[in-house]
Specification:
4% helix, 4-stranded antiparallel sheet, globular, Neuraminidase
Length: 451
C-alpha cells in the first residue's frame, strides 16, 4: 500500500467502495436460536450513526449521533421530540458516505447536577491558523445546559482546545472524566496510513511530543490558569519539559475508538486502539505511557516505510529507554489474517469493564467488539476479555461473546460504540450502513438470555 493511501482498518480505506457496497441489512434476531448467557434487546432506532450513550439521570439516557445531535431517551426507550444538543451548525461539512468526523465526544461534568456543564469534541471548519491544505479543526468545548435541564445552550460554548487536523480520519475524539476529576481526551495521529504524510515529523505524530495528535491529554477544566480556560495537572508527565506539550498524559496512539474508566477495581482507563493492517489492540492508559505507535502495532514491530517487510516475530525497539507499554490484549486483523479463526474483524471498538448486576458471569470482564469483518458488509461482533490469572501472563484472554439471538456471532450490523447506564449495565450502538446515510442506527441493551 502506498504511504499516501487511506489506512485499511481505520474506517478510512476504500471509502467510496464502502458506500457503493454497503447495504441496509436488517438486524433481525433468529427466533429459535438458543445460547446461554446474554442477548441484545433493542432500546431505540432511527438514528444515523450513534457513538455515545450515557445517563442523564436515574430515569433518562442520552444518546449522541455522529451527525451532531444528542437525544434524550426515557426508561422505555422513547425519544424526546426536542434534541438535548444540536451542534450541527458548528460542524464542518460531513460526507454522506464513510466519515470519521462529526460529534465524536460527549460527556457530562462529574458535578453536572450542580453546574449543568457538558463537554463535546466535534469537527469544526478549519481555524484561521490551520494550513489551507489541511482538512479541518477539532474543537474541545464546554457548554451549559438550560436551568430546566431540557437542552444545551449552543451560545454558552467555551472553547477549551483547537486541534488542527491534516486529514479527515484518525480523529479519535472520545472524552471521559477520570476518578481524579480531570478531563481525558483521546486523539488519533491525524490520519493517513502508517502515521506518514505531509504534516509529519520524521518520527510521526504519535511519537512527536510537540503535537497533541496521537496522544491522550489530561486537563483540569475546573481551574483556569495562565490565560487558558483550563489548567495542567501538576503530575502530567511532560510538565516543565518544553517544547513538549504539558497537556499530554500518554502517547504512541494511532486511532483510539472507544475509551472508558472502570467504575470498579482500580478505576483503570481502557482504550481500544485501531491497528493499521495486522493487529487490533486494547490498552490500559497510564501516566507517561508510550504505547508504541508507529514503530509498533500491538506487541509487534512495525516499519512505517515498509510495513509488509516485517515478520510477526520481530520486536520493536523503542528509542525511549523507558520502553513501550504493552497492550493488555491484541487480536489479528481479518484483512491480513483471513484464515485465522481468531481474526475477529478489521477495527476494534472499545467498550467497558462490566460492573452491572444483570449479568453476573460478566462482572470484571472487558466487554467490547469489532466494527466489522469486512468494510463494505455489516458484519460486526461482540467480544469479551478476561484478566489473566497467572502473574506472568502477558495478555488478557479474548473470546467472542455469544449472543443468544445470533448463535453464529454475526450481528448483521457495524458495531460503532458501547455505552453504560447509571447501574453499570451495557449498551451496544450499531448501524447497518458504512457511512452517514439512512437511519439504520440503533441502541441495544445487553440483557440476560431467556432460559
Amino acid at each position: 500500500m502506498s504511504p499516501l493511501a487511506p489506512s485499511a482498518p481505520s474506517r478510512s480505506r476504500w471509502a467510496v467502495l464502502a458506500v457503493l457496497l454497503s447495504c441496509a441489512v436488517v438486524l433481525t434476531p433468529l427466533a429459535n436460536a438458543q445460547a446461554p448467557g446474554q442477548t441484545l434487546r433493542k432500546i431505540t432506532d432511527g438514528l444515523v450513526s450513534p457513538l455515545h450513550l450515557l445517563s442523564l439521570d436515574a430515569k433518562h439516557l442520552l444518546v449522541g449521533d455522529q451527525i451532531g445531535l444528542v437525544h434524550v431517551l426515557d426508561a422505555a426507550g422513547a425519544r424526546r421530540a426536542e434534541p438535548f444538543f444540536d451542534i450541527r451548525p458548528k460542524l464542518t461539512r460531513l460526507n454522506q458516505g464513510f466519515e470519521e468526523r462529526g460529534l465524536l465526544g460527549f460527556v457530562l461534568h462529574p458535578k453536572f447536577p450542580e453546574n449543568r456543564r457538558v463537554f463535546a469534541y466535534y469537527s469544526a471548519p478549519r481555524s484561521a491558523t490551520c494550513p489551507t491544505n489541511w482538512d479541518h479543526t477539532s474543537h474541545v468545548s464546554a457548554f451549559t445546559v438550560t436551568p430546566d435541564l431540557q437542552r444545551v445552550d449552543p451560545a454558552s460554548e467555551q472553547l477549551l482546545l483547537q486541534i488542527d487536523q491534516p486529514y479527515f480520519n484518525h480523529n479519535g475524539g472520545r472524552l471521559a472524566f477520570g476518578p481524579d476529576g480531570f478531563l481525558y481526551i483521546a486523539l488519533g495521529d491525524g490520519g493517513n496510513a502508517n502515521d506518514q504524510g505531509f504534516d509529519r515529523s520524521p518520527t510521526g505524530n504519535a511519537q512527536d511530543l510537540t503535537t497533541l495528535l496521537g496522544k491522550f491529554l489530561r486537563i483540569n477544566v475546573d481551574q483556569p490558569s495562565d490565560g487558558r480556560p483550563y489548567s495542567i495537572p501538576t503530575d502530567n508527565p511532560l510538565v516543565g519539559k518544553s517544547p513538549a506539550r504539558p497537556e499530554i498524559f500518554a502517547w504512541g496512539i494511532r486511532n483510539p475508538w472507544g475509551i472508558s474508566f472502570d467504575r470498579g477495581g482500580a478505576r483503570e482507563l481502557f482504550a481500544a486502539d485501531v491497528g493499521q493492517s495486522r493487529y487490533e489492540e486494547v490498552n490500559i492508559i497510564r501516566n507517561g505511557g508510550n504505547y508504541g505507535w508507529n514503530p509498533r502495532e500491538g506487541f509487534h514491530a512495525f516499519d512505517p516505510k515498509n510495513p509488509a517487510e516485517l515478520t510477526v516475530s520481530q520486536v520493536a525497539i523503542p528509542s525511549d529507554p523507558s520502553g513501550f507499554m504493552d497492550p493488555i490484549l491484541e487480536y489479528r486483523n481479518f484483512n491480513t489474517f483471513n484464515k485465522d479463526p481468531e481474526a475477529f474483524g478489521i477495527s476494534v471498538t472499545g467498550g467497558h469493564v462490566y460492573r452491572g448486576k444483570a449479568l453476573p458471569h460478566l462482572v470484571g470482564q472487558y466487554v467490547f467488539g469489532d466494527w466489522s469483518r469486512q468494510f463494505g458488509v455489516a458484519d460486526g461482533c461482540l467480544l469479551a476479555a478476561s484478566r489473566p490469572t497467572e502473574p506472568a501472563a502477558r495478555a488478557w484472554s479474548v473470546r467472542r461473546l455469544p449472543v443468544a439471538a445470533f448463535p453464529d456471532h454475526k450481528l448483521g450490523a457495524y458495531v460503532l460504540a458501547f455505552g453504560e447506564d447509571a447501574d453499570g449495565e451495557l449498551y451496544v450502538l450499531t448501524t447497518q450502513r458504512g457511512g452517514l446515510v439512512d437511519r439504520t442506527g440503533a441502541v441495544w441493551k445487553l440483557v440476560p438470555s431467556s432460559p
